[in-house]
Amino acid sequence: MKWFWLILAFPFFGLSQTQKTASVDSTTYFIDLANFNKKTNNYKASLYFSQKAINYAKTQGDVKKTADATFSLGQTYFELKKYNDALNVFTTCSALLSSIPPSNQLAICYYNMGICQMKNDDFSKAEISFNKAKAVYEVLKIDAAEPLNLQKGILYKNKGKTDLASLLFNEIVSKPDDKDIFKTKAEALYQLGSIEESLNHNNLAVNYLNRALALNAKDNNPEQKAAILLSLSKAYEKLRNVEKAHQYLKEHLVLKESVNELNNQKLDANDFEEFKESERIKTIEQMAKENQAQQKTNKFVKLISILGIALISILSLLSLTLYKNNIIRSKTNELLKEKNTELQLAKEKAEKASKARAEFLSTVSHELRTPLNAINGITHLLIEDNPKKTQMHYLNSLKFSGNYLLTFINEILEINRIDSSTIEIEYIDFNLKQLLTDIQSSMSEIAAKNNNEFVLEIDESLPEVYLGDPTKLSQIFINLINNALKFTHKGTVKVSAKGVENGDDFTRIHFEVADTGIGIPAEKQETIFDSFSQGSIEINRKYGGTGLGLTIVKKLVDLLGGEISLNSTVGIGTIFSIELNLLNSNNTTVKEDEKKVEYCEEVLKGKHVLVVEDNKINQMVTKKMLENKGMTCQIIDNGEEAIEILQQDNNFDLVLMDVHLPGINGTIATQHIREFDKQKPIIALTAISLNENREMLLSFGMTDVITKPFDPDKFYSSIAQILS
Asked: Which of 254, 397, 529, 678 has the fewest C-beta atoms lying within 10 Å of its C-beta?
């Protein structure tokens, strides 16, 4: 089998720069240069020389050399994972090779076309391509059964025919180890492991995957190893071996990042787009030259026709005019078809990107809200448990930070609402000085971590109470202060607020967040407010962050009608300045108690609650919060058991149902319960955005919805309202 992998690699042994000779024809020379640059990881040059080889071969009218050059370009696209471009080039190459006697190059074209089509989920066409490759190998009497059977097995697996896929994979796995098929065998073992893991045969899946990992060690295939590690993590997670699941997931993420970096190093995205645009312009220029040559020919024909018989000249002119119009119309139609195809592809990409973003936001919402629920819940329980006076300051700071963190998560996850201008500004009374003081208190630990002095200066002449949106103001300052503290070590971070103009109903305030940190380079300052922008890759790796913080700050300042500016010097520090109009309030104080939700605790006492929750920490927090109000509860961790218990024991006054459960989820469990109990109050506990899911959850039979992390007073109030 060793020869097969050598064939797939298709090694053109390129000449070095010192080996250029006149005896080598230009097409082969350019192909050699393309392969030489590819070996040195210079894919930009490789694309250039492959295309140059194609252009030269076409001018010579040599079909075989044109096919060789086209194949070289296809292989480069294939290695860069530009599967759509590779598929188009290999299709052209196979058409050229079909006009000459069969060769292993034609078989590889079909084989690579099949892989590209599988990457695009076009499995029917992929199967046709692999069958064509098999037919060519049979004509050439070359044994390529293992790799073709491997791809056929993957096709069956993607079509849901796991039994047929397993037969093919087991046939490959059964081959003796002394045969040189470890690459194919490793992939077959990985595919078997993923099939068994999807069937919840997790011990068997772990066995296959470990064998695949051992064979993978013989070959430098990091992408395959990353896939195996991810499947091992999932299998161990289902086996409840959290330690190994975490270990393999961590190894997968590290390796995946390494693979992505290696792929990005091969060819910069801008270089690729530049190459594609350059080739498109060259094609247009070539067409223009051909049109000019055609026009000269036409003029010459017209001149000869005019010197001939007048009638023939007139008829020839009419015919030529019709012919030209037809060519122009045909070219225009073809151009319109191409543009329509490009627009359709762009639309599909935009739809996929939108779907991916929605799925990402949903996942992030759940993954952040679930642990945040535990943090806020435990903080509430500690405050309720009569802590020492010396501890109240820390607990209140923790509660403040948790509440603001929840607000930030909501704002970040709804950044698309800011972009679409659908987010609304809230106008409530708030204490500006208290807001900045609370932020300083909550971030004092971050300041201490980097040995920073955190100074707050507020103009004493400023009123304390304003009418505005304290949540958005808090998010602006927390983002700016957090950045200042993060990029400053053993320095000073100063936040100041000073009035610059007093109107009849507003005050214009100049805010500054200044630090003595690392500073921002001048070339980065113009794009610092762009999404996902960081000073450099090194800064991102050293200090972390998503690059969204300053984008959100800029959008929120614009939304509030303010202005933000930046003044920074590398090595000296950074100053962010904000000027903002705040409406004056008629009140002089803000009552915190007005935000509390009233409810009757007597309604809660003695009630028996069924809690369906799989997260151990959230189980503990929910149980303690219920017991603190005199309720009793029974806890289970899956929907199936909830259905069974409620069928046998109907003495529960209320059910708290987590939406995301192992096995059947909370919505399906509620549907089953409603088949035999229409009246039982069932409250959904969900970590996903309430605005997106409330109506959907109620449609499954839920009585009410409480979003995690829940506010304790609202939590008790919702339960009391339903029980009363």
From this structure: 678
Tokens for 295, please give them. 């026009």
pLDDT single digits (tens) 559-615: 888 999 999 999 899 999 999 999 988 877 776 544 444 678 888 999 999 999 988
**H helix intervals, 40-161:** 43-60, 63-79, 83-97, 104-119, 123-140, 145-158
Tens digit of each residue's pLDDT (9 = 90 or more) over 67-116: 888 898 888 888 888 888 888 888 999 888 888 888 888 889 998 998 89
Beta bridge partners of 600: none
Locate tokens 């405050």: which residue? 383
432-442 and 470-486 helices, crossing angle to 10°:
40
| Secondary structure tally for the chain: helices H, strands E | 28, 12
Rounded CA-CA distance 510/557 in Å is 13
Through-space distance between the first and last CA atoms of the chain, rounded to whole angstroms: 75
Those residues whose C-beta lies under 8 Å from the C-beta of residue 425, and which sit 6 or more positions away, are 468, 469, 472, 559, 560
Q: Which residues of 273-309 are buried (b: 16+ CB within 10 A; e: fewer)?
A: eebeeeeeeeeeeeeeeeeeeeeeeeeeeeeebeeee
Tokens found for residue 370: 């679930």
Encoded tokens for 653? 């006054």
Give the C-alpha separation, 299 to 297, whole Å.
5
**CB atoms closer than 10 angstroms to residue 603:** 16
State how far the Cα of 149 lies from the Cα of 295, in Å rounded to an integer: 55
Between 61-70, 101-110, 685-694, the lowest mean confidence (pLDDT) is in: 685-694
Quickly count: other Cβ atoms within 10 Å of residue 261's Cβ: 10
How confident is the model at residue 690, as a pLDDT? 44
* 689 neighbors 365 (Cβ within 8 angstroms): yes
Neighbours of 635 (CB within 10 A): 17
Residue 207: how many other CB atoms lie within 10 Å: 16
Task: Tally the C-alpha atoms within 13 A of residue 284's C-alpha that lie toward its C-beta.
Answer: 7
- 632: β partners: 608
Contacts of 589 (CB under 8 A, 6+ apart): 431, 464, 465
Beta strands in 630-677 (DSSP E): 632-636, 654-658
With DSSP H G I counted as helix, E B as strand and the rest as coil, what are the percentages for the chain, rounded to 5? 65, 10, 25
Answer whether the bond into residue 709 is a cis peptide, omega within 30°.
yes
User: Shortest CA distance to 576 belongs to which of 608, 538, 594, 549?
Assistant: 549
Whether this prediction's pTM lies above 0.85 is answered by: no
Q: Please give the backbone phi and psi of residue 635, each rounded to the nearest 5 degrees, phi first.
A: -115, 130
H-helix or E-strand spanning residue 506: strand 506-515
Place of tokens 């090694």: 11
Identity at 685, one-letter amino acid code? L
Confidence of residue 631 (pLDDT cuts 50, 70, 90): very high
3-state secondary structure of 313: helix
Q: For the CA atoms of 69, 75, 81, 83, what is the dihedral angle to 10 degrees?
A: 70
